[in-house]
Design goal:
Thiolase_C_2, alpha/beta, Thiolase domain-containing protein, Thiolase, 9-stranded mixed sheet, single chain, acetyl-CoA C-acyltransferase activity, two-stranded antiparallel sheet, Thiolase-like
């Protein structure tokens, strides 16, 4: 079964906070739900499908459905880390296509800044991988640094090329009043920032922020009754890449599988995409994902992102025009949600005028959750303005 054209995004909302002192996770979920439903012109009583992930407090959908006073006939709490909310769009579209629900609400909330966050991975638990990896005390940045080093070794990618990704994000973030980092930076600024995990500098890393977002998906017949621009789900793909018992190749991501699945369902090619939201936990995440989605050949990502090729109005492929995780926000360490939100703004023509892609009709959003150095989830959605 294909989900192409069988579900539409009718409402979106991004929480403006970047540090949620005084707000609970449940409150943030509720506030973004209210915002997205208002954007769609719907109420909570219209919702018959609810989607969340591991950031939801308590027992996930059970606690949140009660807190929001919803009465869904379909729920889904699949958790693939940062890719969860891109994946949820595909799952919600499938549920609508199957008739399981007709108005699906997806909510995200996180407050790692207000609550405090450690960069050290949790102590070994019940997972089978923990006894093999935990003795090395891996932290998030070092695992991405390992992937960057391998890519440089195999393909000659340089720190200067990675820095261009941050430069492009900063050019976009200057127009976002909510972005945490609004100053435009240069390649030299990135290279001169402190080394965090060789070869990644501080400005190669995303911000840590509180906040959240929500999306309302509806059946096409519901979308036609609403007074909002219609953004249709054209295709979706998902995949899990794991460490294969240690026989892992660090130079590619799960996007090599999720991307082609999404493009096949959508019936389009990478060259048709006018705007791309790419998960940007680190600059290397963007570079590898662009290659794996087919925007350039494997090993050519460095050349592709250099010289401002990702800057809206200047380059060939505008990306993350809200400033992305590198400059804007990364709520709850699950940046997939905001990737979808900015893609919808672009398709509606509601991005900041300085970064709006003219006549944007086809956009892609991609999420990466987990770690490029070990195991991660990948999710890709292709969206179209009707």
């Amino acid at each position: 079964m294909s989900i192409r054209g069988k579900a539409c995004i009718a409402g979106i909302y991004e929480h403006p906070t970047r540090k949620a002192d005084g707000l609970s996770l449940a409150q943030i979920h509720a506030e973004v739900a209210r915002g997205a439903l208002a954007d769609a012109g719907l109420s909570k009583d219209d919702v018959d499908g609810y989607f969340c992930a591991g950031d939801a407090p308590g027992l996930g959908p059970m606690n949140m459905v009660e807190y929001l006073n919803l009465k869904p006939r379909h729920v889904d709490s699949t958790d693939t880390g940062g890719s969860s909310y891109v994946l949820a769009v595909g799952h919600a579209a499938a549920a609508i296509a199957l008739g399981k629900c007709s108005v699906a609400l997806i909510t995200l909330a996180g407050r790692p800044r207000a609550a405090g966050q450690s960069q050290v991975r949790p102590a070994p638990g019940a997972t089978a991988d923990a006894p093999f990896e935990a003795p090395f005390n891996p932290v998030i940045a070092t695992m991405y640094g390992a992937a960057a080093n391998r890519h440089m070794h195999e393909f000659g990618t340089t720190s200067e090329q990675l820095a261009w990704i941050k430069v492009a994000a900063s050019h976009h973030a200057q127009h976002n009043p909510h972005a945490m980092l609004r100053n435009v930076v240069t390649v030299e600024d990135v290279l001169n920032s402190p080394m965090v995990a060789d070869p990644l500098h501080r400005l190669d890393c995303c911000v840590i922020s509180d906040g959240g977002g929500a999306i309302v998906l509806v059946a096409p017949e519901v979308a036609r009754s609403l007074k909002r621009p219609v953004v249709s789900i054209r295709g979706a793909g998902e995949a899990i890449k794991h460490s294969a018992g240690g026989r892992i190749d660090l130079t590619y991501s799960g996007a090599v599988w999720s991307g082609p699945r999404a493009f096949e369902e959508a019936g389009v090619r990478p060259s048709d995409i006018q705007y791309a939201s790419i998960y940007d936990s680190f600059t290397i995440t963007v570079l590898m994902t662009l290659e794996d989605l087919g925007f350039c050949a494997k090993g050519q990502g460095g050349r592709f992102v250099a010289d401002g090729n990702l800057i809206s109005g200047h380059g060939k492929l505008p990306f993350n025009t809200d400033g992305g995780g590198l400059c804007n926000n990364h709520p709850g360490n699950r940046g997939g949600m905001t990737k979808v939100l900015e893609a919808v703004r672009q398709l509606r023509g509601e991005a900041h005028p300085a970064v709006q892609v003219p006549n944007c009709a086809l956009a892609l959003a991609h999420g990466t959750g987990g770690s490029l150095g070990t195991r991660h989830g990948s999710a890709t959605v292709i969206l179209e303005r009707q």
